[in-house]
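User: I'll paste a sequence; please echo it back and then give the predicted structure.

Assistant: Echoing your sequence first, then the prediction.
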Amino acid sequence: YPREMAYALDGVYLIFPWHWGGAYSIFSPNFVESTKLSNGVFSAKYGHAVSGLLEVNTIMPDDELHFSLDLNYTSTAAFLSSPLGKNSGIILGTKVTYLETLLGLYRLTGGTSTDMIAKAPYIRDFYAKYYVQPTDKLNLTFNGLFGSDGIGLDANKDNVDSEDDVITVGEIDYDYYQAFLGLNAGWMATDSVKVNGRLAWTMMNEDLNLDMKDTGFIPYNPDFLDRYGYMISPEARARGGYELDTSTQYKEKVLHQMVQAKEDTSVRFNDSSEIVFGAEEVLAFGSVEMKGNMWSEVNLGGDYPEYHPIVYSSKADNNKTWATSGFVLWNYGNEDTLVNGEIGLRLDHMKITGRGIDISSQPDVNPRGTIHYTPWRDLGPFDKIVFTTGAGLFSAVPFDSAMISEETDVSSGAKQDRSLFTVIGTELDFTNDWKVS
């Protein structure tokens, strides 16, 4: 599930790097150097997830000028990479959709099937990266990204087919904004010791308003009566169906921000042995407001279920969640050895403060380990055959923690979401560059 995962851009956590609820990611292929999706066991260097990790590393500017422009009938994507002197460079990228133009042209031809689209689905992304190496042992990278997407619908009696048994009218207005600013620093203290430091701020702002009304007569079909007829009152059965007249309103405003700092030190003993240790602090804060007037089927103890409105409201605007972590791991072996993998240990602690709130969890101890065993290389059609096994514990701050209020009952204590994963598998690397896992 997307919100159970962690997302790292150049080692920095992002909140929810997706457009249109998960249909498209913010990671343009133009500025991505590598992408690694780990479902199951992943490195102890990363936390804040209970189901998987997506690691994305962006490209570095080099000594040459690169430019690309991708044009099609729905969007434009542009990319520029340029050196700035001997040891520095800049990358700029953007992606912009313009479905509004297509809708306008279609409507000029007299088309009406899109009349209910009040605001065309859109994506607006802008990315920048600056790299500088002041000395042979120190490098600095600054990243920045702004993204947005949304849609608007307006279904009214004029643009809804009135011949339908049920008519749905109403409005939906949705906008989603996200931003990211980060600083990465790498320092080679010695030939075998490297220190990395990261500071970052990330933000997401979600604004959704929904107002719908359903009306019409819904007849019972024979299959429904055969299966559920005993639940229907005699009066409703005599009418042959029921009248639907319901209104649904939902409003959601979410502002989620994260400030994070991370330091890790790697000590390399040789080509097949490395120790990494470090710590990180992630402060999440913002505001959440949700209001709903919905309908749901409930059974109040009578002979038949009833359809009732459910009204609720939730607001939290002063919560702060502190996630403190420390980790140590050992990377052993490499791609050319018989055995390689990682053994690590991570400690994660959660603290939530706010108006009338002071919650602290017990530290979660999360050991993890992975072994890759490669008994065969250059065997017939295979470059190599690898067997893998691993296990690990994972924990993350519950996403709903931002909505805890003074009225929330936490007398039983607070815990992070927690999961255990075990993995066993095989990887077949063919000589023709195909790989099957």
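DSSP finds three helices and 23 strands in the chain. The longest strand covers residues 241-270.
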